[in-house]
Amino acid sequence: MVLLSFDIEEFDMPFEYGKTISFDDQINISRAGTIIILDLLKKHVVTATFFCTATFAKSAPDIIKRIIAENHELASHGYYHSDFKVAHLLESKQELERISNSEVIGFRMPRMMPVDEQEVAKAGYIYNTSINPTYLPGRYNNFSVPRTFFKQMGVLQVPASVTPIIRLPLFWLAFHNYPLSIYKALCKWTYNTDDYLNLYFHPWEFTDLNDKQRFGFPSYVTKNCGSQMKNRMDAYITWLKSKNYNFGTFKDFLKTLN
Question: What residue ranges define each of the domains in the chain, with the CATH number in brackets?
Answer without folding.
Answer: 2-256 (3.20.20.370)
